[in-house]
Protein: Tenascin-X
Organism: Corallococcus interemptor
Amino acid sequence: GTGRPPDTAAPGGGEVRVELRGESNPYPECPTPVACHTSTFDVAAEQCVETEEPDGTACDPGNACILGATCTAGRCRGTERVCDDGNACTTDVCNPLDGCTSVPAPPCPGDGQCQVGACDPKVGCTLAKAPDGTFCGPERGCDLADVCLDGTCQRRDPPDNFPCAAASPCQGPGKCKGSVCQRPAVTALAPDWTYDAASNGEALHDLLVGPTGDVTLVGFFVPALLDAAGPVPVRASTSGRRCMLWNDRLLCMDLPLSGQVSLLDRVTGAPRWTFDLAKARPDFTQGLTTVFMARLGVMQPDRLAALFEAYPAGTSRDTLCRQYFLVVLDAFGGMVSAQKLQDPLLAECNHPHPYGVASDAAGDLYVAFGQTQNVGAPLYPGAPTLLMAFSQDGVPRWRKTEAFAAGELAIVNGLLLNERSTQALRTQDGQAVGSQPFPRQLGRALATSGHVIPSPSEDTVAGGWTLEGYALPGLTPSWTHAFQGWPGPVAPEVRLASWPTWPGQPPETVVVGTGMDARGPVLFAVSAKDGSQVFQCPVPDAVTPAQFLELGPDSLVMMDGATTCGDCDPPFAYSQSRFRRFPIPGLKPAEEPWPGTFGGPGHDHHEDPVRGR
């Protein structure tokens, strides 16, 4: 504005006029606040200040299953939505994005003998007589067998053609002939779908199998490919790199160097939402050379950990210095919390990188940072490892440094397991549990409700390859399965599956993997309870075990042909791999605390509640 002071006499009788000019600047726009906070510009401090909303303020929980949400101590809290379709034979669940849905309930339990579980829609689980001929005791031969007859367990001499052994994926069921349980010849597995990325010149090296069996193929810096139904995948309408499954949708990191994460429809690729760190928090990214996604981790159905990586201000893209930002998002992509991660190890210019990300059943998050031993992807981790623990809302809990090299993390029953460690740690505080309970590194471990099962390993002393089970909670050696006569190798990637191991009996949890026996590549299944062999099936047209595998309903998808590192990050980056799907009726992904989600670069690393058998 302008101003004019009172007239004053000037020397010589004239007037002096003084003109004042000023410029007003609007208050700068403050970054998007996290839930239950406001962000306003403080004129005196000349900066944006974030404050908590008063308790009781209505808020958006970012979860369709939370009702009446209000702010409490800076967090959005509400009451859980109750879903009930009136049918006792369904499980009523609430999807944070879609609301109430109903799915078939788990099978009703029997009495362990000759009464099997049945379900009445009005009253729920009941008991019914098991089919005559169902095994019910320890005797299972063709001369004597404990079988159910009219609802009771009786020992009988089975007749010829009595089913004495369950079918395997490559062999029909056994049937009694006299005192011998005869089985048909073993046949090789046959794929019903193949996609060879090398023949198309595409750098695809990862796969995801959806709950209906749909297959998504992903590469490090290439668009996702989706197999909706037919034998040939169709290109999605949007691009992504390093994807995982969350809330029945495809969650993908950004294209290179854009700092975004998007939730996409699994089949069409249409985005449900996109979160952009630079737009949401310019106060974090201002002055930084580049911002991009580092890792994703599922914490809860309505909590997602998005870890962003950046080159510090004043550096070029060839720098080995890094900055990291942890953002917790809700199911609709809204910010629950956001923070810059700081630690002396992260300040070292040796490309510190989050090689492990996992969460427990409570939704608490654990991240393993380590230095990188090379330049350029794929990244090879070094030691030491910085472990950081956060609550489900992103509040820091504890941190510590360990001497082992960083790697993927697994969690079961309050135990934190690092891929390259021989020591289990407590999730409560990071302290060691026992003293060196594992003779070798854990590798890509699995966990049932009763056992921790490290990756298959080669016994350099006794020779040969073995798979071992350690009983929970004490992690004491429980069983060993030796791959007799196998020259190896046995692939480190294994999964837990549900499989009907005996006629008429409920399915059991088995360890599924691949290896090389004297004849060539083999798909195997081993009991997770006692390590006994369940089946072995030849895999045709392969020169190595599967480098990666995922389970679907009644199917298994294998990847081979990768030409780069599988123990780095991302595994098998830039490889032009081959993918094959094998139909295996009866095979299902197991419901266990840690059924095997290592290996894939952005897979769900979340501990499920203990539901295993």
